[in-house]
Amino acid sequence: MNGSSAQKRQVYMDHAATTPTHPDVLAAMLPYFTQEFGNPSSLYSIGRRVRKAVEGAREQVAAALGAAPAEIFFCAGGTEADNWALKGAVSAHRSRGSHIITTAIEHHAVLHTCEYLETQGVRVTYLPVDRYGLVDPHAVEDAICDDTIMISVMMANNEAGTIEPVGAIGTIAREHGILFHTDAVQAIGHLPIDVEAMHIDLLSLSAHKFHGPKGIGALYVRDGVAIERFVHGGAQEKRRRAGTEYTPGIIGLGAAIERACTDIEGHAARLRRLRDRLIDGVLREVPHSALNGHPELRLPGNASMSFAGIDGEALLLMLDAQGIYGSTGSACSSASGEPSHVLTAMGVPPRLAGTSLRLTLGEVNTDEDVDYVLAVLPGIVERLRAMSPLSA
To answer: Is the torsion defined by CA of 177, 195, 301, 360 positive or negative?
Structure first.
């Protein structure tokens, strides 16, 4: 089939980049822009009411992670949470050592922070992954040195969708007395998380990935873990992050995470069915196409594929013209023009890595959306190959 035979519709399949704020979440937020505008640090009644709401949101986040409310610290989003986790922990534990273990496929919020820390005398080991994007827990353990103070491995990859063995890695870190941080930005609402069972010491999350507002996230810090404050100023967030709390965003984060984690398995099962229909259809209808990431250990809504002989950005633009919205990889690095560091680390040749398409489904997607993509995508790939020197 080709695009001309399908009636044009609007299909958003870039939920790994961001999600629309859910109406229920927005409704929970709105009073805190107007009627309940008080500063939560104020002692009078308006401020006390807002403080109670902020603490209620903290309880909602804690419940979703199996944590205690006192272990949740609000911040501006996943990037800040990653920066805070790495910089704060390294600063607090520098007397113990100066070595971090991470992977080659982390989000740039972790990788670029590690690169900065290297300029400050920190030694970083970037572990390789296999062709599916999986890091080997044994390789993590083998990389541990006497001066290792932290391991940082993401829970699920934002590009390829591969789910990492964080439970096994957390166990290794705990046995060696090393801090374990995980970037769980892509995992919230898709995977069940229990920070106690997984032996996680620090965890980053961001509301806009699960139908909350942009500009708000949280860092989980296990009780007893020392971490330096990230922003200096007032006494907010138990003196660990200064600045007047973004109350509407915090309320939205709490509402969104409670909603996202109410029926994780039911939500995941529906997405897996749609995802598998999409992947199977594309691989069947498009010659010389390949799945990126693990075929089974992957996020329920992630369909990352490569198409030999085309240009990934040209594919995105032609899909956009047909009302289909996806990405070539991480939204945070889409303007770099460089081949995906994730796919490159997985052994995908740079030329093929530049042909990737990431379609990430969410709760708004339907079977009709999948049908439309399957009707449009094969014809677009065929036309791009016919005009591209890459297919020669």
So the answer is: negative
